[in-house]
Amino acid sequence: METILLKNIENPNSADIDEYIKAGGYRSLQKAIEMQPKAIIDEVKKSGLRGRGGAGFPTGMKWTFASSDPKTPRYLLCNADEGEPGTFKDRPILEKNPHLLIEGMAIAGYAIGAEYGYIYLRGEYPGAKDILDTAIRQAYDRGLLGDNILGRAVRFHLSVHQGAGAYICGEETALIESLEGERGQPRIKPPFPVNVGAWSKPTVINNVETLSNIPYIIETGAEAYSKIGSRDCPGPKLYCVSGHVERPGVYELPMGINLRDIIYTHAGGIRGGEKLKAVIPGGVSTPILPPDKIDCPMDFVNMPKHGSMLGSGAVMVFDDTVCLVKVCYRALRFFDHESCGKCTPCREGTGWLSNILGRIEHGKGRDGDIELLLDVAGNMLGKTFCPLGDGAASVVQNFIRHFRPEFEGHIRDAGCRLQN
Amino acid sequence: MLSEKAIKQVDEIIARYPAKRSAVMPALYIAQMEFGWLTPEAIEAVSEATGVPKATVKGVATFYAMYKHKPIGRHLIQLCTNVSCMIFGAERLVDIIKNKYGLEAGGTTADGRFSLVIMECIGACGTAPAMLVDTDFHENLTEENIVKILENYK
Ligand SMILES: Cc1cc2nc3c(=O)[nH]c(=O)nc-3n(C[C@H](O)[C@H](O)[C@H](O)COP(=O)(O)O)c2cc1C
User: Fold this and answer.
1) Cβ atoms B134, B33 nearer than 8 A
2) All domains of chain A, ordered by start, with CATH?
3) How far apart are the C-alpha atoms of B5 and A123, rounded to whole Å?
4) What is the CA radius of gyration of chain A?
5) Quick check: CB of A206 below 6 Å from ligand 1?
6) Smallest Cα–Cα separation from B66: which of B125, B123, B102, B118?
7) I want to staple A173 with a disulfide (CB 3.0 to 4.6 A). Which of A110, A112, A187, B88 is the partner?
8) Which positions in chain B have a beta carbon within 8 angstroms of at least one beta carbon in chain A?
9) Which of B22, B28, B65 lies closest to A166 in CB terms?
10) What is d(CA B154, CA B151) in angstroms, rounded to the nearest whole number?
11) Is the CB of A390 under 6 A from ligand 1?
12) Which sequence spans correspond to the domains of chain B?
């Protein structure tokens, strides 16, 4: 397959504007500003593009909502917080193809009538910060950003806003709070950011990968684009594979490709010919799957029918040397650490889940602990302010659903058979 | 007080946003660079530069894990122990750092050379285990190569 998102990244100078232009870059922006904004949005709608940040919301629809809100100014935010454990798919775009994102944002800004855009970049990517700053400066110098883009009366200003190590700021309303200089705690929805977003104005928030699809859609047209990937979920998708595979890494593949193919064909199968024990298909927050459940099309529509979610496309592979109680405990320590503290079910629930899992992992589990875990998780699900708490609860439920004997064994044997 | 250069930097940043308050996080980074960590003077300087009350600045600063609220060493080791790094032995690496440098997570060596912070996922899962030293990524760490890498930071 022709690469769209990772195009040209083997070129060591791929982040440079000249290399990007040489490879056909910024032609789409030229084309876009000769179109009516509404025509661009229609094209994006027709392409079927869904947001790659995890929720899979139709991008064209989001743009329509924001652009039809009469309040101005409007804002465009790029979510480059990439905090979901296991996820490293936006990083190659940010570090090696920054102009693709900038071009996508300039087009999006013009389409929705936003004159200011911000890239909310996680603090853990200091290298990407420098690369983006340089790329943005280059784009200004060439008249591709600024007050008169390509000599026309089109304005779009762009800068990077650096996060500082808070997973919750990947959640769009927490991201807005953080951009406004506040503690990154989520807001209640509705109103949605498309109506009341940054500085209470209509705001589009899209993931890095989502925005990086835009230049290709404009260049080749919605129809050609929608032939890539699955019918309900077209386009290319970045899958980042980690854990016990022969070739971990980021793979650009058609949306909807089978999870088994990602692992066995593209990532080379299980490392050292070991036996597969489990797969987390879309980042730590998505439901874990046992080996007999990995024949599923990896897209937003089909994964829920197969008991999990596409999430961020972060495929985490575990061979049978891995203690899943330990993995579950580590995941819950993460949620406990990252819970923002705003709502009680999440703040307290993640703490309790983590503590109980800790004692099971450390050989101090008690009879009834599994039921206790499920009880706490059940009291969190659907009752937390934002999906972070739901994610934490469902991790525990799904680990126990598929691997209950391993938890029982830890309690019975007062520890782990796989370790020591 | 921030240096003149830093104040100019903060002013440039303020101009990017419709509200001054958005400059608090970037200004905290700048103040942290100038003062080494977020001393009471650093918080006050950010408050002055942005017009946001001190208590509010402090409240923002304490929410985010990457701001420093005590002195740190010359080099900051940020080692990931989240799932993809953990399954490749990241916890062993924590022990190695502890044995070699007497350095505990959250602490600083007596000579002020290194500080160690345990990170949640740093986005290097395909090349796990991984760490950041200052702003440099180091990936595919092993029990053998980690000390060699750290020895390059004096
Ligand atoms: C706890 C939590 C963390 C999230 N982290 C991210 C993230 O790191 N990056 C991202 O793009 N979206 C993240 N999201 C999803 C965003 O809220 C939002 O849906 C997304 O940025 C919208 O962009 P899209 O429509 O292009 O997918 C997160 C959501 C939640 C609830």
Assistant:
1) no
2) 17-226 (3.40.50.11540), 236-319 (3.10.20.600), 324-412 (1.20.1440.230)
3) 23
4) 22
5) yes
6) B118
7) A187
8) 16, 18-19, 21-26, 28-29, 50, 52, 59-60, 63-67, 78, 81-84, 86-87, 119-128, 132, 135, 137
9) B65
10) 7
11) no
12) 4-63, 75-150
Token pair in block for residue A395: 């991790």
Alpha-carbon torsion A367, A369, A370, A375, what sign?
A: positive
d(CA A256, CA A351): 36
CB atoms B120 and A284 under 8 Å: no
Q: C-alpha angle with apex A237: A124 to A31, nearest 5 degrees? A: 95
**In one letter, which amino acid is A201?**
K
| CATH 3.40.50.300 is right for the domain spanning B4-63 | no
* Chain A environment of B16 (Cβ under 8 Å): 116, 118, 157, 159
* Structure tokens belonging to residue B48: 């002055």
Cα A341 to averaged position of ligand 1 atoms, centre (Å): 19
Two domains, one topology: B4-63 and B75-150: no
B60 and A181 within 8 Å at the Cβ level: the answer is yes
Q: Are strands A157-162 and A276-280 parallel, antiparallel or unpaired?
A: unpaired
Task: Report the residue of chain B nearest A181, measured CA to CA.
Answer: B22
Question: Of A71, A76, A84, A88, which to mutate for an interface test with B (greatest number of B Cβ within 10 Å)?
Answer: A88
Report the run of H or E that residue B114 belongs to, with start and end: strand B114-119
Give the Å distance between the CA of A287 and the centre of ligand 1.
17
Query: pTM of the predicted model, to two decimals?
Result: 0.98
Contact state of A126 with B66 under an 8 Å Cβ cutoff: no
**What contacts A39, CB < 8 A, 6 or more positions away?**
none
pLDDT tens series, chain A, 420 aa: 689 999 999 999 999 999 999 999 999 999 999 999 999 999 999 999 999 999 999 999 999 999 999 999 999 999 999 999 999 999 999 999 999 999 999 999 999 999 999 999 999 999 999 999 999 999 999 999 999 999 999 999 999 999 999 999 999 999 999 999 999 999 999 999 999 999 999 999 999 999 999 999 999 999 999 999 999 999 999 999 999 999 999 999 999 999 999 999 999 999 999 999 999 999 999 999 999 999 999 999 999 999 999 999 999 999 999 999 999 999 999 999 999 999 999 999 999 999 999 999 999 999 999 999 999 999 999 999 999 999 999 999 999 999 999 999 999 999 998 774
Token readout for A300 is 């937003």
Q: Is the CB of A170 under 6 A from ligand 1?
A: yes
> Tell me, which fold does domain B75-150 have in CATH?
Glutaredoxin (3.40.30)
Does A248 contact B126 at a Cβ distance shorter than 8 Å?
Answer: yes
**C-alpha B102 to ligand 1 mean position (Å):** 39
Question: Which chain A residues touch B32 with a CB distance below 8 Å?
Answer: none
